[in-house]
Structure formats: structure tokens, C-alpha cells
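Worked Example 4.2. Consider the chain below.
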Amino acid sequence: MPNTDRINSLQAMLEKKELSCALLFYSRDVFYYTGTAQPSYLFVSPEDYFLYVRSGIEFALQEAFIDKNKIKEERRLENIYHDLSLKLSGHKIAIEMDVLPATQLLKIQKLFGDYDLIDASPLVLEQRKIKDHHEISIIREASEAIDMGHFAVLSTLRDGITELELAAAVENAHRLAGHEGIFFIRQPDFFMSRGPISSGPNLFRISGVVYTITGVGLSPSVPAGPSQRKISKGEPIVIDIPTLVQGYHADQTRTYTLGRADKRLKIMHDSLKAIADHLIAQMKPGTKCREIYQKAMEKAKELNHSDIFLNFGNGKRSQLVGHGIGLELNEPPIISPYDRSEISEGNVIALDMHMLDENVGVVKLEDMILINKDRNEILNKTARELFEV
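Applying the procedure from the previous section yields the following C-alpha cells:
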């Protein structure tokens, strides 16, 4: 039987907002509603829907979980417009403005000149925030794949190994466990390596490419991720390489040391975990994102670590302690002082926090939390500790 529950929910939102239709093209959204990521335009009105496949029709017909009679092969947007013109009512069309190239926008404006164009992405992302049982089961699989990377660190980390060699071992373990070799972030011109990894003095160098502990990369062309730097005994190493399994991401960060860790570094990590545990217990459905951020700051102050919590050095500080995760690595809700939305049952939130002390080092801890009505669940499989290898 075709599954149109997600499309039906979108149709209800379109009707409530008095929108003529949504015209979606972004692969993650098309995949969410149809089950295929083949290049397509998905038309959804309050009364009907069609998937116009631009290429790969054989794949789409095999993969999609929607009614196959609603799938057509069509490459040209002009022909799609003529097909839709008789089906449209009202005067507002929702499109994904945050990821739509300007040339494509101009073409849509020319064809649908009699309609007002509004941004569909907030509607789609709001629907995607709450994960169903199937989505959560796949995120669990992605968590198992990321755990294999952890075991690769334990078996590979040694004196003199480069960050790149260590990252390659982790990435290889992820791939063999089912990682699809890519990750998605809803941001034009976003680029990074397979994931941040950094060690020793590189931990204090924060690239602007991604707002986290980044690593420096192999060249200025991609200034984030592992470098050719050799890791030495006693140094902390932060590994934050995500996985993607069947379209859904898992995110995790663990901190390691080669040999015994400095006692001060252990205290930092214990405090960081205490803040995370505090938030996991406090994040209830209906809690505002900004309130969760404030609880983190208050706990850091209580532990006398407010000066190094979320610190990036040189007077800079992160304004984020977590983010939603699913079809994209970073998606709403965003746990920051600027997000006034509430978390809900079924959200999966990656708590993503660090401490940086210029005189000691850096520790980072990240886990995915499934928000439940009664007790939240940590989806990651890897132990949440500072690993001395």
C-alpha cells in the first residue's frame, strides 16, 4: 500500500496556510515525502500531489513508497508548469527559498508570475522535527556505525600517527558498517572534510567554515578536518566524524588522549559530562530551546567553569549547545539563546558542547538525545568518557 501520511500532513498545513501548493526540489525533502532521492520536482496541493522525475525514473519507480501512478517522467519545468496550471487554485506557491539557486528562482518567477512565492522550508522543517519510529530505528543503525569508528580509534591510535591516518581508519570503519560516505547540511556552498578531527595545538585553531572544534585540514582549500600533523603522547584528540545510514545521520564527539591524560583535562571532561547529564534530565517536551541553553550556562557557572565552557579563545564563545539531527546533520530545533521554539516529544537533539582552556587543552562531548514524554534516551552506543589509549 502507498504511504502518503507525510504528504497528507503537508497538505493539511498548506490548506491551513491557504497556500495553492508546495513545489519542492531539494533531495532531502523529496526523499522524506516520497522515499526516492532521484532528481525530481514534488508538487503537493491540498487536494493532490505528483512527483515529476527529471532523471532516474526507473530508480524512482522502484524506490518510492507513494502511489506509482503519481510519478511521471518530466525534465522541463515549463512542461511541469503547463501540467499544473489546470490544478492550481489560489495565488500562493511555497518553494524552498533557502536552498533554491537564483537562476532556478528566476525561472519559477517567470513561469508562475501570477502567483506569490513564499518559503516552504519552515513548514517542511517543522514537520521533519518529530521523528517517527522508523526514522528513530535508522538513526540507531547510524549510531552503531559511528561506534565502529570509536573502536577503530582504540585499535589505531599510536605515537606518531597523523591526524589524517587516524581519520582514515575511522572513516573506513564507518563505511564498512554502512555509512554512505557523505553528510548533508542545509546551507549553500557548505564544505568540509568527512568530519572534524583535531589534536594538540590544532585544537586551539578554530576555522570559520563550521562553528565548532574544527581541525585545520590539509590545505587552505578546505580548512577544516584532519591534517598531516603527527600526534604525540599526552595530547588530547577530539574526533567528531558523523555517519549517514539510509539517509539519516548520527553525530558523536569523543575526546581521547594518547597515554595518560592531564588531571586538569579529566576534571574538565567530568564537568562537561555533568552539564550534559543535567540537560538530558531537564529537556522536557514544551521546554524552550533558549531555556535549555540558559540551564547549560547556569550549570557551568555552578561548576566554576563558565570561563572555559563553549570557549573558542580570543574572546569568542559558541552560542550553541545542541541541534536537531535527522535527514540533515544540523536541523531545527537549535539549542541557542536565539531559538524561542519549544522542543517536542520525538525530537532527536545532538547535545554538542566543549570546554577550552588555553593552559590545559580541549575536551568535547556530543550525543544524540531522543526526547520522550517521561525519560529521555541517549541514542549513541559509545561510552561517554575521556578515553586514555
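Residues 133-388 form a domain with the Creatine Amidinohydrolase fold (CATH 3.90.230.10). The chain has ten helices and 19 strands. Compare this with Example 4.1 before moving on.
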